[in-house]
Specification:
single chain, alpha+beta, five-stranded antiparallel sheet, 1 helix, rod-shaped
Length: 142
Amino acid sequence: MKNKENINGFTLVEALIAMAILSFIIVTILSGFTHQKMATRKIADKNLALSLAEIKMQELQKFSAGQLTPGISTDWIIHRKGLFKVYQSDPNDVDQFRRVTSIAVEQGNVLGDKMVIQVMVEYGKDKTTYPFRVVLSTKKGI
């Protein structure tokens, strides 16, 4: 029998182990990017919901309490490519925001000269529910 020379290089097992380790590292890095992208989307949605609530609140702040009519109104907003589209009925879109505005006479106010304004924006629609919401509330006198 002849002696086989010791050939330098990797065996098949060593190559497979190296590929498994490299695959694990790549998957971990890509998973981190995916989670970061989802977190960025959630923050962007929250900021947009807050802006939509603030815009509605600013519209209502222009009026005195006597000019405001008590009641509840709902509208739906879809934001795509920098444009906003407002609907008066549910467009049933996954990227929609639902904005509910409530105006009521302040409780215990016998003169009816003070109003409570509340604007709630819900987002992150999942089938029929909205798991996230932003609520702004203020009081307005005559």
